Amino acid sequence: MAERLEWNVSGMDCASCVAKVTRAVERMPGVSDVSVALMAEKLSLTLASDTTPKDKIEAVVKALGYGIAPKGTAAPKKKAFVMPGDASHDRGPGDRNHDHEASAHVADTGHGSPGHVHDDPADRGKRWYQTAKGRLVIVTGLLLAAAWAVELLSGHTLGYWAFVAACVIGVAPVTQRAYAALRMGQPFTIESLMTIAAAGALFIGATEEAALVVFLFAVGEVLEGVAANKARDGIRALANLVPKTAFLVDGGQTQEVPAGSLRIGQVVLTRPGDRIPADGEIVKGTSGVDESPVTGESVPKTRGPGEMVFAGSINTEAALRIRVTKMAEDNTIARIIRLVEEAEEARAPTERFIDRFSRWYMPMIVALSVAVILIAPLATGADWNTWIYRGLTLLLIGCPCALVISVPASIASALSAGARRGLLMKGGAVIEAAARVRQVAFDKTGTLTLGRPQVVAVVPVAGATETEVLRLAAAVEAGSSHPLAQAILRRAEGIAVPAATAARSLAGKGVSAKVEGRDLTIASPRYATEQGALQGDWIVRVAELEEGGKTVAVLFDDKSALGLIALRDEPRADAADAVRQLRAMGITPTILTGDNSRTAAAIAEALGTEFRAEMLPENKLAAIREMAAQGGVMMVGDGINDAPALKQANVGVAMGSGTDVALETADAAILRDRVTDIPATIRLARATMGNIRQNVALALGLKAVFLVTSVLGITGLWLAILADTGATVLVTLNALRLLAQNPEKS
Asked: What does the alpha-carbon distance between residue 726 and residue 736 come to, in Å, rounded to a whole number?
């Protein structure tokens, strides 16, 4: 018997944290399907009974230096080491110095290793000088200034020892974290390299430069934290969109209650200017609703009874009474936040490659540094101090922080920028695939069209009347949610509809049922013809209707046709513009529809797309496979009827009206019913991949330049540390540019 368990984990702040927790836990007996969500701070796994005790799993995570508690309770703060001179000893909950005490069997290298200082959640919202890292900068800066003052006032000898003291006191917390990392079997961290470089500089007498390097390292850490924290602000802001309280209507009374306590079926009052506290259905009132905080739709929409609204939207005009349809944890904003938080699990191939590269990059740099120190003095008798200095400089350049963060920083910014505009992509793998798209396949009904077809003609056959055709057709379609069925039911309102039994769906063809003792079917003209129910002049009549861009449904019994029902679904207002944008981007749009070829041709001609008609679900699947063989393909549908094709495509996108399904199924989702959001999504993905390429080039380029200049003796220790932390800051700031990206602009 296996059990699925979940914990809250505090203190994780980078991908390496996730890797350490995952690797440590998944090695334990009986543990499988380990999933660690960084932004959500969640650990979930499947545990076989009578194997590893739960408290042992918690002990391993705590040994890594993180707080852990069962789901639903707050994770305790992790315990920080305290050493003399450590300016961060008074950090609060969630301390993220990574000064972990842990078992040595967990190995990791590179960015985010124990000791590497990252964002501290207790410091969020504070000015830089109020944070723990900021205080460390102030302390090391004062020590450095004091050492310069001593040298200026007291001479070189006392100044020498003042710089030694400044360096030792400033590097003490770094050394402490390096030691903690070493105990975990992780010798290759920036802290360990910093400690070695500082000690080596003191050994060769470069005391002033050693103290300066320690100060610059602290400054770089502050800049990294500030830049990285901004990348997370977009998603944090989403959680604040939903109001904390709501006005619950109970009988004739209204009382203010916590929004999180609302239950499905309860009715809330939303006043003009208030944010809507829950996903729900309007039961009374008509007002403009500003959905821009949720979907990015800039123009308020008029909503009335029977229409759905999102939590976090703003009621702009009149009071509304809204029936709650989703619990707080399941509303649209909560789902968006979960989606973005968990999107990191779908890591981009580029990110996985860089992670593998960084594992051997740092040991290679250490080996190169040792070679630089030894070869020249031993082979040519060169000055040891000179080459030790150059080797130490190489060590400081060796940390691959900028390279490792180059991809996830861009991905996080892109996900945040997209979420603010109702463009949701489930992780880096989806973004990378979307950037390579060369063809887009559209479902027609509800995607390129409004999804609300209207009955425009009823043609009785074999002596039946129009009312009789509608009465029987509505009986067969009763209970169906298909747009065509809903159109027929709307047209039959006011007509007495008999009960139907034995109803069944004919996949991709129609529906049948027994009505008043007769076996009736509503289906496509093609299927009706195959069954022998449609013949002669009526086939011609169907063709005439279809050539006018109408969809025709045939009502027939086991003998002959009883009537033709012609429906028309108008294209969305922005569909033609979306197609134009796609073609301008070098992408071929194609309609895949189960509708007849004449109707499909009429729509395709109006929009300027290719088309394939009369397609069953299996035909759409085959078409996607065929298109994928010619390059990346994106399938856009409603997330339900087109599920096989959505899954088969390189990127499956679900459109907005099916938000519930959209957030749970396809690779990406468009929250608002705008076809132009499809080229916008691709544009954002392409911009993201361009940003990633810039980041990788920047990170590797700076490393390469300073590796050469360090070996040649052109640059020294303080420039080396600036190259490391500076590259990380530059990469992060470049990634943050995506937050301002407007993918809607072609």
From this structure: 15
**255-281: string of b/e by CB count within 10 Å (b at 16+)?**
eebebeebeeebbbbbeeebbbbbbbe
Active-site residue identified among 120, 443, 595, 642: 443
Residues 6+ apart with CB under 8 A from 335: 663
Distance CA 301, CA 287 (A): 8
Cα–Cα dist 623/366, whole Å: 53
Per-residue pLDDT tens for 110-135? Answer: 333 333 334 444 444 566 666 666 77
Contact (Cβ atoms closer than 8 angstroms) between residue 136 and residue 40: no
Assess whether pLDDT exceeds 50 at residue 210: yes
The residue among 554, 558, 522, 527 whose CA lies nearest residue 538 is 554
**Is residue 443 annotated as part of the catalytic site, yes or no?**
yes
Tokens coding 543: 């063709």
pTM above 0.70, yes or no: no
Q: Report residue 62 as tokens.
A: 């705590």
d(CA 573, CA 577) in angstroms, rounded, equals: 8
Give dist(CA 20, CA 15) in Å, integer. Answer: 9
Distance between CA atoms of residues 165 and 170, nearest Å: 8
CA–CA distances in Å: residue 668 to residues 195, 231, 348: 46, 21, 15
pLDDT single digits (tens) 367-394: 888 888 888 888 888 888 888 878 877 7
Q: If 0-12 CB within 10 Å is exposed, 13-18 middle and 19+ buried, where does residue 481 land?
A: exposed
Average pLDDT, the chain: 79
Q: What is the CATH number of domain 245-330?
A: 2.70.150.10
Element (H or E) spanning 553, and its range? strand 551-556
Burial 637-655 (b: 16+ CB within 10 A, else e): bbbebbbebbebbbbbbbb
CATH of the domain spanning 454-568:
3.40.1110.10
Which fold would CATH assign to domain 412-449+571-686? Answer: Rossmann fold (3.40.50)
> Which of 564-596 are b and which e, b meaning 16 or more Cβ less than 10 Å from the residue's Cβ?
bbbbbbebbeebbbbbbbbeeeebbbbbbbbbb
Q: Assess if CATH 3.10.450.50 describes domain 1-77.
A: no
